[in-house]
Design goal:
Length: 282
């Protein structure tokens, strides 16, 4: 059997893929100023197809001469939409699963920085952004938008750096900003031994789903705050494993929530979370 025997199937697959891409590109530009430009581009592509179909040589020559200009214009006009689309693809579950090993390397950079800062007796606050965007807190600091590295984190928190008193906010493998101001926890039940850094990471965890890490320069303890809960004196040798466990539990909670929402929409009613056995991860 030759490839030509399956030509019709390949043509169908080709049309399906192109339709899928055009549809999702339209979803990206829908409601934006680029929507009209997108429709204009579709009209030009349709005109090109008609020129090929009816063998309009002059029109074919004109459109072929403009192909390079089209590509450049497409990249310029739809730059924000393309950037947003690529970001959505990169944040999808499929790609997160594929690049799981790469994410672990980012946790390794954070581990190296935290352990070295603890060893040197330098205080620090690291915030790992998750579902809730931290733009309001990023704007209180100095934007960096740099690649995540342990050396950069250590440099930021080494006095007399002007950014060493604030928090570093991290999204994936990027350091968004440094010197950021976090809200202090207003809880009246906190132990008096809790310093400003502990109250800051706890306050942020009460308002967002971010994972916040503090290194104490007085006690050299590592603390982690999540969902209004503070874990103090984390063992440095187990720090990376604890971080990975927190992030894994977050993904499991997201999957449970999506499953519950799907079941609720299917049954048309509300769902209640069943009690979990004692000791089960929350």
């Amino acid at each position: 059997m030759h490839l030509s025997d399956f030509r019709w199937a390949l043509d169908v697959i080709d049309v399906v893929i192109v339709t899928f891409l055009i549809y999702h590109l339209f979803l990206l530009v829908r409601g934006t100023r680029a929507a009209q430009m997108f429709l204009g581009l579709m009209a030009i592509l349709l005109l090109s197809a008609l020129a090929d179909l009816f063998r309009l040589s002059a029109l074919q020559w004109l459109l072929a001469s403009l192909k390079t200009v089209w590509v450049v214009a497409f990249l310029i006009i739809f730059q924000p939409e393309l950037r947003r689309g690529l970001s959505m693809v990169g944040n999808s579950k499929l790609f997160r699963a594929i690049f799981k090993l790469q994410e672990s390397s980012h946790l390794g950079e954070i581990e190296d920085a935290v352990v070295n800062l603890r060893r040197r007796g330098l205080g620090a606050i690291l915030v790992l952004e998750r579902n809730t965007q931290l733009r309001a807190f990023v704007e209180t600091g100095t934007a960096l938008d740099s690649n995540l590295s342990s050396e950069l984190i250590e440099t930021i928190f080494t006095p007399p750096s002007p950014l060493h008193d604030g928090a570093v906010i991290i999204r994936g493998n990027q350091i968004l900003a440094a010197g950021c101001i976090l809200p202090l926890s207003a809880s009246t039940t906190l132990d008096r031994s809790y310093g400003t850094r502990h109250r800051a990471i706890l306050g942020l965890s009460e308002e967002t789903d971010a994972l916040a890490i503090a290194v104490s320069e007085e006690t050299r303890q590592i603390s982690i705050a999540e969902n209004g809960r503070l874990i103090r004196n984390v063992d440095p040798t187990e720090f990376k494993a604890v971080l990975a466990q927190f992030l894994t539990h977050t993904e499991e909670r997201e999957e449970r929530t999506e499953k519950a929402e799907a079941e609720s929409s299917d049954t048309g009613g509300s769902t209640e979370e069943k009690p979990r056995p004692a000791g089960a991860p929350s």
